[in-house]
Input
Amino acid sequence: MLWSLVPDAAPSAPANPDEHSKLRAAFRDAGNWLLRLLLSPFVEVGALSKLLWESAFWGIRPPYRGRLFVEAMEFIGIGSIFLVSLTAVFVGGVLALQLVDGFRDFGAENQTGAVIGLALAREVGPVFAALMVTSRAGSAMTTELGSMRVTNQIDALVTMAVNPVQYLVVPRLVAGFVMVPVLTMLFNIVGVMGAFFVAVGLLGLDPGVFMDRLKWLVDWDDVSQGLIKAMVFGVAVTLIACRQGFYAKGGAAGVGRATNRAVVQSAIAILVLDYLVTGLVLGQGLL
Amino acid sequence: MKLFRRNLLRLTRASLPPGVKDDPIHVRIRDLHKSYGEHEVLKGVSLDIHRGQTNLIIGPSGSGKTVLMRQLIRLENPDSGQLIVNGIDFARLEGLNLAAMRRTFGMVFQMSALFDSMTVFDNVAFPLREHTDLSRTEIRDRVMDRLTGLGVAAAAQKLPAQLSGGMQKRVAVARAMILESEILIYDEPTTGLDPITTEMVDELITEAEEMFGVTSVVISHDMASVVRIANQLSFLHEGRIAATGTPEELLHTDHPATAEFIRASRISTT
Output
């Protein structure tokens, strides 16, 4: 070959004959890893879509287990009332603190009630309610289903001719769809109460002006926009929690990893879906 | 709901060809293959499960016992091969037919797989509530009857976590048997149990067979159980059935891997 005519420039033979194959294997592994990383969001969305489709399919088929729906609603809804109320009071309060302070610079503090009402109804209420459901109920759902998976309880359902998606996933999805909007309304109401207390009780705003501006700017369209988002978030966070738990593997450590993934994915999904739904509702901001 | 249940029952019964109950072979496994990616675990398993007897499938760890069990009850779909149960190819069934056929089987998992959020009573009543129109009283009577028969009636209102391993196994057997399934599959029922509890579980398998006339399939690597309970014994080795027969025949086999397994387990062959 030409290289042999230029001895000094000829590539040296590998010291170890296995070196080339090791290098090739390392490149192949790195390539596979990168490919998996790039494809993983699509794989995840595909898996979630499949589970959603299966849930819709099994959700309309008998038997209908009313007790499971009530239990799931109680767990997601009633169980989250305290957490949602507590966060709503402080979120409303801190919004009032910031806005009164900011608006005072140009004499617009009377608009505080209106802006807080709008922010809570359209954005803060649904997003925070969904985040609270994720942190309390979503993580618990993943852990419960994950534990059932790794201890063969889901397999046991299958062997007893009970469809596990119908039995375990459908009631939770329906409960998320129904209860996250209810919790959003609760967040809105308690948030306004918290803001009212801080703005009127602590910072001396006129209560009549606060409520008048709130009623003047916030209408049903704003509230319904928030409720639509809450329904979407409710399905998304329960779907992600169920998907992660349902397909968990690797024992207790695997359940822990699944729970971690569920919380992270849910938080990201809430913020991404928030933008997409807002764009769809407002008819702008999307391609 | 009632129509769904009636359909399930109709399919279970109507699908039985005449005379199958007299067939001494309850399940015929033929050339069963299963791979995960490039790793082939089952490489053509062929085996007869004898009706009304305790059929043990033994083999070293990693030989494919649990994978075989998962195909047998269709927790996974085999790549190819046949699973003839009562004359019907179980491997080909889908949907409602598959759900109906699954009721032929009861499964006792290695760790019992009892629903930990339910009491013992609710665990055993679960299949009845799901698949029958029995009244509350009838369900209570049937569940308590089964729990009494297996000696765990006193634990009816306890949660599974409050029971010992042996008691959990008894409850798992009661749950698997409550729909009067014809075939009971036990996945490594004695793994991790002390010798006394192991002996109790072995007795339980024999009791269940004698009391309810079921066909038992026990997947295990515990050779001590072989001597105590097996009517039929098969040795699974590297994804294939390497030897099969009565325990007597297998204990004196000249098949090298089987003989080595028996020798290593220090079971007396005399």
Summary: The two ends of chain A are 56 Å apart (CA to CA).
